[in-house]
Design goal:
single chain; 218 residues; alpha/beta; Rossmann fold; six-stranded parallel β-sheet; 6 helices; globular
C-alpha cells in the first residue's frame, strides 16, 4: 500500500452491491479486498479473524471495513421457517458482522480514518412477515451499528446504510418501484455513493443512512 492509498475490506464483496462498492472505492483511490465465500466462512469466528488478518497483510493495513455479507433472503411464511433458514440469515448477517468487526478493531484504531460501514436493510425497520429471519438478522445488525459506535468511539466511527430496492431481480422492477415514494428503483451505485459520503463525513457515527427512495415510509 502506498503512503496515500487507504485500504478497505468488504465482506460480501462479490455480490451485486458489494462489488459495486469495491469498484467505487477503487476509483476513489482505495486498495480493496472484496471478499466472498471463497475467502473464508465469516460465520466461524476463527475464519472471520483470519480474513481480517489476510486483508491487512495483503493491503498493508486497514482503514475501512464494509460489512455487506448477507444470506437467507428467502420468502417463507413464519410457520414454515426452519432452523436452517434462521441460521442462514442470522449467522452471516449478525454473527459474521460481529466477529469480523471485532477482529478489525486494532487495525482500524491504527488508521486515521477508522470507519466501519454496515450495509443494513430497510427490512431491519419494517416487519415483513414473509422474510422473518432476514428482518431479524438485519435488525440485529442495525443494533450492532449502534453498539459498536458507542464501544469504539472516539477512535472508530461506525455507521449504517439501509438500502431499499437497489438490487432488484429482472422482471420485478415495476412492482418494486411502486413500493417507493419516488416511484423508481435505485441501483447499487446509490449505495456505493453513500459509502463514499460516509468516508468523508467525519462527524457522523452511530446512525443509519436510508438510501431507499422512501421505501421505509410506505
Amino acid at each position: 500500500m502506498t503512503e496515500t492509498a487507504r485500504a478497505a475490506l468488504i465482506t460480501g464483496g462479490t455480490g451485486r452491491v458489494g462489488s459495486t462498492i469495491a469498484a467505487r472505492l477503487e476509483a476513489e483511490g482505495f486498495v480493496v479486498l472484496a471478499a466472498g465465500r471463497r475467502d473464508g466462512d465469516i460465520t466461524r469466528p476463527d475464519e472471520a479473524r483470519a480474513l481480517v488478518e489476510n486483508a491487512v497483510e495483503e493491503l498493508g493495513g486497514l482503514d475501512l471495513l464494509v460489512n455487506a455479507a448477507s444470506a437467507g433472503f428467502e420468502p417463507r411464511p413464519v410457520e414454515e421457517v426452519s432452523e436452517e433458514d434462521w441460521d442462514a440469515a442470522l449467522d452471516s448477517t449478525a454473527k459474521g458482522t460481529f466477529f469480523v468487526t471485532q477482529a478489525a478493531v486494532p487495525h482500524l484504531r491504527a488508521s486515521s480514518l477508522g470507519l466501519v460501514v454496515m450495509i443494513e436493510d430497510v427490512g431491519a425497520f419494517m416487519p415483513w412477515p414473509s422474510f422473518g429471519p432476514h428482518c431479524a438478522a438485519k435488525a440485529a445488525q442495525a443494533m450492532l451499528t449502534r453498539v459498536f459506535a458507542r464501544a469504539l468511539a472516539p477512535d472508530i466511527r461506525v455507521c449504517g446504510i439501509a438500502p431499499g430496492p437497489v438490487a432488484v431481480e429482472p422482471g420485478q422492477e415495476e412492482r418494486r418501484a411502486a413500493e417507493t415514494l419516488l416511484g423508481r428503483i435505485g441501483s447499487p451505485d446509490d449505495i456505493a455513493g453513500a459509502v463514499v459520503y460516509l468516508v468523508g463525513a467525519g462527524y457522523v457515527t452511530g446512525s443509519t443512512l436510508f438510501v431507499d427512495g422512501g421505501r421505509s415510509l410506505t
